[in-house]
Amino acid sequence: MREFSEWIVELGLIDIPLHRVKFTWRINDSKSKLDRALCCQDLLRNFPNLILVGLKRSFSDHNPLLLTLEACNNWVPKPFRCYDAWFLNSEFKSFLNNEWRNLPNESLHNKLKILKGPGPLKTWRTENFDIMDNKISELESAVHDLKNLSDNRDLNNMERAKLFAANSVLNLWLIRRERMWRQKARTYGFNMKDRNTRFFHASTIFRRKKNETIQTKQWQKRNHSKITDAQVEFLETTPLREKVKNAVWACGIDKAPGFDGYNSKFIKEMWDVLKDEIYDFVLDFFVTGCSLRHLNVTWVTLIPKVVNPIFIDDYRPISMVGALYKIISKILSLCLKELGFGRKWIRWIMNCVSSASMSIILNGSPLKPFKMEKGLRQGDPLSPYLFIHQ
């Protein structure tokens, strides 16, 4: 079975998920999923609402399977996402630097909001990345024609230079496409050198994300002594620039972006441009205690835990926190290891906890945010350190 699965991936075929039934063959107490339907990527691209349905059995040991087109009536506008592959374009950072300097004198949050659009960033994406498939197709045709020509005669110097250039540019576009589909599929544990774009593409289309099992440790109750006044003063000291940068660099770059569309990869790549305004934003919070309500929004997407999810328990909720809020939360979480904090510290923590709201992503689009009444959010760096102490 493993070899068959590897063969499917190698050929770029997609095993269409089966609906309504779990097994397709039964004899007495024996049962198995023997029947399936495979298709190529192009078919699924042309017919994205293709589904495989298991029908009722009659006298046969097998369920008949029906391949059909489901009515596609759930289209919703998709939120903005900044993809890591954009930074593989050598001109992207220069473009961002110029656009950032031309933005109006607004808060950091508003500047990022203006940048993502409808505005310059969406225009750049349309002109430079939405043409990706056409560009790859043109380059593949050019390489193919030149190689066919070389089968009949020796290429001259100009033709060899064209072939080398086409191959080099094609390789860059293939890496960009692979990186983008990998991020969309959120599939981890694969070497980027494998260049298995078809697998990442299939994973994205069918939302087949394999979740890691996180090892947990049972909390051991300890007797904590109240920290000293000197420790309280140290904890409530306004963070310096080095501490802010350490918090940013402590955030993983492979996390999905939150409601603002940016992840830590974007912040790190644009650090030289954003660092002063990020520090001013952090300083404003720690000095004035300004509310984070407009930044403290969490999107929750539901990942199926089973093949044919029906009930809410069949899904695993994944939380996505905004990039700017995560910086504040990370700074506090790096210090939050003891009890007995001062009033200022408690006010900071309560600001982060009480200002949070959540929005469920349905069919790729966020619903209306709602206020959370209890519980801790997955994805918030503070969550592992907050608990009920009795």
Description:
- The protein is of the alpha+beta class.
- The protein has three domains: 2-69, no CATH class; 84-206, no CATH class; 229-385, no CATH class.
- It is built from 14 helices and twelve strands.
- Strands 8, 9, 10, 11 and 12 form a five-stranded mixed beta sheet that branches.
- The longest helix is centred in the middle third of the chain and has 29 residues, at 157-185.
- It is flat, with a radius of gyration of 26 Å.
- The termini are far apart.
- The model is unreliable at 187-195 and 206-222 (pLDDT under 50).
How does the SSE layout of this entry go?
Elements lengths: L1 H9 L3 E2 L2 E2 L5 E3 L2 E3 L5 E2 L1 H6 L3 E5 L10 E5 L22 H11 L5 H9 L3 H9 L3 H21 L4 H29 L11 H10 L22 H7 L5 H9 L14 H6 L1 H18 L8 E8 L10 E7 L1 H13 L7 H12 L2 E6 L2 E2 L3 E2 L19
Parallel strand pairs: 2-6, 8-10
Antiparallel strand pairs: 1-5, 3-4, 6-7, 8-9, 10-11, 10-12
Low-confidence stretches: 187-195, 206-222
Q: How many domains comprise the coordinates?
A: 3
How many DSSP-defined strands? 12
The H/E string reads HEEEEEHEEHHHHHHHHHHEEHHEEE
Q: Helical proportion?
A: 40-55%
Number of helices: 14
Strand content: 5-15%
Structural class category: alpha+beta
Report the end-to-end length measured between terminal Cα atoms: 52 Å
The largest sheet, given as strand count, sense and whether it forms a barrel, is: 5 strands, mixed
From the alpha-carbon coordinates, what is the Rg to the nearest angstrom?
26 Å
Oligomer: single chain
Mean pLDDT: 76
Shape: flat
